[in-house]
Each structure stands twice: as structure tokens, then as C-alpha cells.
Amino acid sequence: MPTVLITGANRGLGFGFVELFLREGWNVIAVARDPASAPELHALASSNTGKLTIEQCDLANFATIDALGAKLAGKPIDLLLCNGAKTNNPSSTIGDTNYEAWMEAFKVNTMAQMKLAETFVENVAASVQKKMFFLSSRIGANPPAGMILFRSSKSALNQVVMQLSLLLKPRGIAVACAHPGFVKTKSTADMGVFTADESAAHLKKVIDNLTVENAGQFFEPDGSTLPIVTRQTNAHAFGAKAPDAWKEQQKVWDKQGGR
Ligand SMILES: NC(=O)c1ccc[n+]([C@@H]2O[C@H](COP(=O)([O-])OP(=O)(O)OC[C@H]3O[C@@H](n4cnc5c(N)ncnc54)[C@H](OP(=O)(O)O)[C@@H]3O)[C@@H](O)[C@H]2O)c1
Predict the structure, then answer these.
(1) Residue 239 falls within a domain, yes or no?
(2) What is the tens place of the pLDDT at every residue in 158-182?
(3) What pLDDT score was predicted for residue 235?
(4) Contacts of 112 (CB under 8 A, 6+ apart)
(5) DSSP structural state of residue 194
(6) Which of 17, 41, 127, 186 could join 76 via S-S bond, C-beta 3.0 to 4.6 A?
(7) Which of 6, 7, 10, 13 best tests ligand 1's pocket when mutated (most atoms within 8 Å of CB)?
(8) How far apart are CA 236 and CA 118, in angstroms?
(9) What is the pTM assigned to this prediction?
(10) How far apart are CA 187 and CA 182, in angstroms?
(11) Three-state DSSP class for residue 250
């Protein structure tokens, strides 16, 4: 059976995913910041011996991601499901931005997600299904105003997902992200529209249908898509045409392995 690694697995949507994948017979690696404070996960593990393992990782501490990577080295992971995120960010208006909290939001919601991809890419490449899926948010792309910290960290995540999908497509790895809907979890004070189980079930269908051909997209829970990043596609826009010398220079950088 396939294996999924799920971050933020101790509660909320992450826990909903753990239950769903177990029901469908997958092997589940449930990653939590503090497994000792995750009694529901331990209860599930005892009734799913050999199918569910619990691992520790603090997404704000990259040494713990490295340690988990070393522990799981050589183990195929069909689906890297990056769900854990810092959702309890202070709201900000003009004049009271909390820059420390913003850096933490970027570290956990954007940079740690890249770090997870880099750490587990060989595990995913060694699997059968070869997928990476990231929980983003509609808020990372749309108005209304407000929630700048969380919004910008998810917006940047969308760009990371787009890059990962382009860079990993040649290796047959499909990468995408999704909005889970408005879900009844701690992060929404249980005011959502979907339960975690319902949202996980919708997203599981999206994940099942993910291929390298439709990768690099931002999915809604019903499988429809939103533009993942704004791209300038008008080659005739004023100043858009790159000089030939620039294209030649880019070829040199490509040969050198990057700029
Ligand atoms: N619920 C919604 O309506 C909604 C809407 C849009 C997007 N999303 C996205 O969907 C995902 C799940 O949302 P949710 O509502 O289930 O969120 P949640 O209830 O706030 O749960 C967040 C999970 O992430 C973990 N986490 C936070 N910081 C961490 C860190 N530094 N290291 C490791 N784990 C950490 C939490 O662990 P602890 O228990 O240790 O804190 C928890 O397991 C998130 O990516 C969220 O942004 C949710």
C-alpha cells in the first residue's frame, strides 16, 4: 500500500487526513510538533499497529526537519502532504504590524514547506505515486484587506509550489496546492462550512486526480482551479521583450546550474 507523510497531523484538517488515509488502507506517517500532546493520534496508532507511525518535527526548527529526513532516508513516500501551518497570526492593520510574528509566519508557512520538499524529494522520487501537495489558502490570492502576515506567507507558498512543480516535473513528481474550504478547526474557531473529514475527502479526490500534466495549480476543494500566481504573459507589453544578449546570458547561467 502507498505511504503518506502528513504534517500538522495532531489536530484539525491534518488529523482528518490521517483518519481518511488510514480508512483507505494507506501507511501513514503522522508528523506533529509535540507528539506527547497528541492523545488522539496515539489512540489511532494503537488501533492501527504497523499502519500509523507518529514522528516529531517543529516546522520552525529546520534541524528537526533534517533529523526526520535522516530517520526516513530510503523510505519511499508516495504523497508528501504539507498541511501544518502557523494559522494563529496576529491581525495587522496599518501601524501595528508585528514583524517578528511575520518572520515566523514566513518561516513556517513558506520556507519550511520548501524545506520539507527538499528534505523528502528523494523519498517521493523513490515511490510509485510521486506527489507533493500543499495546503494553501484562498486568502493568499484574494481580497478583502487584512490578515497580511498569513495572507502573504500563503501567497509566497503558492509561488514556491509553482517553482517546485516546474523543477520536479522532469523527475515525474506532481506538485500542487489547494484551498481546503472554510473548515471547522481551531484556526477558524470551529466556524467553518466543512468538517475536517469533509474537507479531507474533497481534497483526497483532487490529490487522486493529480498528475504531472495538471500539476503546478491551485485547486479549490471541488477540483476547479484559481490562478496560482499572477504571470505577465503579454510578450508585446511595453518593455517585455528581453534583448537577445539577456537570453544568451540565461543560457550560460543554466549551463552553470543557475544564476
Ligand atoms: N481551516 C480552514 O478554514 C483553512 C482555510 C484555508 C487554509 N487552511 C490551511 O489548511 C491547513 C490546516 O488548517 P487547520 O485549520 O487544520 O489549522 P489548525 O487547526 O491551526 O492546525 C494547524 C496544524 O499545524 C501545526 N503546526 C503549526 N505550527 C507548527 C510548527 N511550527 N511545527 C509543526 N506543526 C505546526 C499545528 O500543530 P500544534 O497543535 O502543535 O500547534 C496543527 O497540527 C493549514 O495549512 C491552513 O493554513 C485552513
Answers:
(1) no
(2) 999 999 999 999 999 999 999 999 9
(3) 67
(4) 59, 60, 62, 65
(5) B
(6) 127
(7) 13
(8) 36
(9) 0.93
(10) 10
(11) helix
Q: Residue 195: inside a domain, yes or no?
A: yes
Question: Which residue do the cell numbers 519550511 mark?
Answer: 112
DSSP code of residue 243:
P
User: Does residue 41 have its Cβ closer than 6 Å to ligand 1?
Assistant: no
Name the stretches of the chain with pLDDT < 50.
none
Q: Which amino acid is at 68?
A: L
Best of 187, 190, 207 for a ligand 1 pocket test (most atoms within 8 Å of beta carbon): 187
Tell me the residue type at 102.
W
Q: Is 164 helix (H, G, I), strand (E, B) or coil?
A: helix
Please state the domain count of the chain: 1
In whole angstroms, give the CA distance from residue 78 to residue 173: 10
244 phi, psi to nearest 5 deg: -55, -35
Q: Which domain holds residue 204?
A: 3-233
